[in-house]
Sequence to fold (444 residues):
Amino acid sequence: MKNKGIIAIVGGGLAGSECAALIARYGIRADIYEMKPVKFSEAHKSEYLAELVCSNSLKSNDVRSPQGLLKEELRRSGSLIIESADNAFVPAGDSLSVDRELFAKSITERLSSDENIRIIREEVRDFNILTDKYDAVVISTGPLTSPDAAGSLMNIAGGSDFLYFYDAVSPIITYESVDMSKAFFGSRYKKGSGDYINCPLSEEEYRALYNAIISAELVESHIDENLKFFEGCLPAEEIARRGYKSLAFGPFKPVGLGFDRKNMPFAVVQLRAENRERTLYSVVAFQTRMRYGSQEKVLRLIPALKNCEIVRYGQMHRNIYLNSPKVLSENLSLKNNPRIFVAGTLTGVEGYVEAAASGMIAGLSVVSYIKGKDFIPPPDMTAMGLLYRYITGRISVNKEYVPTNINKGLFLHNGAKRYSEKMAEEAIERIEEYRKTFNLKIYC
Ligand SMILES: Cc1cc2nc3c(=O)[nH]c(=O)nc-3n(C[C@H](O)[C@H](O)[C@H](O)COP(=O)(O)OP(=O)(O)OC[C@H]3O[C@@H](n4cnc5c(N)ncnc54)[C@H](O)[C@@H]3O)c2cc1C
Fold:
């Protein structure tokens, strides 16, 4: 039987809850399918929707920072997640930290008591069954999507090339912060047109770097320890653990860069451009599980990076996400099935608030779809708009598609040299305008 005019949302996490709240605000009915408590992922523990699986911090609330700006944009758009976080706030400097129990409980109660929303506690294993029943389906099952559902999504999206299972990324730094008097452009063995920035190290400097890597504090692993690291993207600390010279003979090797034997540095750390404007560079082969503070300390031991500004930190954890620029249409539906939309970290956004933002954007798109209107995405140079542009491939990414949180780097995609407070002010104005054009109602 077809549930006409009703939308199925699979996964009642941060994205799914925000998406359902948004849809209900337009008077459209939504059924949320949530597998808890029938089945729990390895990280989920509570029966509530919108569970925070790890930290209770939603990161900076300072509106001048990209993280704080994203929250403010959501707040002004009537986000259920941010409103509930504000209400469940616990003091933690400038970050928005919450009482996780209160936070998730209040969201669950709000959604349960909404007349447009029904919560169905059931694991969805095959999305095709739902497309037969509903006008549209939103998949927001998160990075720990149950295996059957992941298989179903993979089949619909187009096969294994479109679903990734790991997230291993290196820190990204601004070009401006690199001391080019201690680095030079060039490609190993003259391949390419001198695309890399090369940062030479003497043996003494390398030893200090090696010791710092070996002794750096690591974040707890989110990776299933039974699954081995891919040899092709080992964390820097894992390579270092294999021996003193393993980095200097491996990814930091000084050869092929035109040095004669006498002047050869002991090691060379390479930086690779992250965007076409070359305002951002990632540190090659530096995917890492080091704590953020340690990453900064370690990288600053490289002479050319003494004052480096990190705009996105390295990270590594198990994570299922789609190759969104390839598989999603402009309105966040699957190219292979325009009635299936995707939201949350499955699209390649990273972080609680980013997941909520993605849920709101997908919700707006589904509402447009149901009303037979074209989807108007959030404007460029707003935090929401930049996340949207990243996942739909409108922001240039030189290498393999990897998840992103909101960060200063995204604001530099159109050639700006640095992120500024003025950008944040303008973004808020744009979001206010957007809210009006979309007639975005505040949740009540
Ligand atoms: C272990 C871990 C720790 C993390 N820690 C942090 C952190 O500290 N800070 C941070 O900002 N981000 C963190 N993240 C990243 C990310 O922000 C969170 O995972 C976030 O909760 C993702 O939001 P989401 O809505 O996409 O998915 P989720 O919030 O995970 O929601 C997905 C929901 O779908 C349900 N579900 C899954 N499969 C099915 C199915 N087949 N049928 C029905 N329901 C299903 C799940 O039970 C869950 O409730 C972490 C991720 C992981 C994996």
